[in-house]
Amino acid sequence: MDILDTEKVLKKYVPMTETAFYILLSLAEPRHGYGIVKHVEIISNSRIRLGSGTVYGTLTKMQKDGIITVFSDEERKTVYEVTELGHKLITAEIDRLKELYQNALKYGEGFYDDKSI
């Protein structure tokens, strides 16, 4: 994958939807679709409950765009993993989110009555 393809994918996905972010984040290790659903539910403290249509639609799109690939097919369960391009994408998004968080801490305190953030 060349730099133009990488830039094209970054432009298409960044900023990421929360759903896409959590799906990709769940693939820090290879997982099948149901494993992704359960992992996202756990790490979001049950705030996000992904439906199978959402997960498989997003996985199909990410696979088509070269962000993830099929790691293995086991007993009717397709296991996915992040590609090098997907790693670049999640890293770029995490860096963007870190910047947002730092700016929220630095400039956002006037929006809160409770100064504990």
Residue windows where pLDDT falls under 50 for at least 5 positions: none
Oligomer description: single chain
Largest beta sheet: strand ordering: 1-3-2
Shape: globular
Number of helices: 5
Q: Percent of residues in helical segments?
A: 55-70%
The helix/strand order is HHEHHEEH
Question: End-to-end span in angstroms?
Answer: 41 Å
Summing up helix and strand content along with how strands pair, one would put the structural category as alpha+beta
Q: Count the strands?
A: 3
Largest sheet: 3 strands, antiparallel
- Cα Rg: 16 Å
- Average pLDDT, rounded to a whole number, is 92
Strand content: 5-15%
Q: Can you describe this structure?
A:
The chain contains five helices and three strands; from the N terminus they run H-H-E-H-H-E-E-H. The chain has 117 residues and is of the alpha+beta class. It has a three-stranded antiparallel β-sheet with strand order 1-3-2. A hairpin with a 2-residue loop joins strand 2 and strand 3 (77-82). Helix 1 (3-13) packs across helix 5 (84-107) and helix 3 packs across helix 4. The chain is globular. The mean pLDDT is 92.
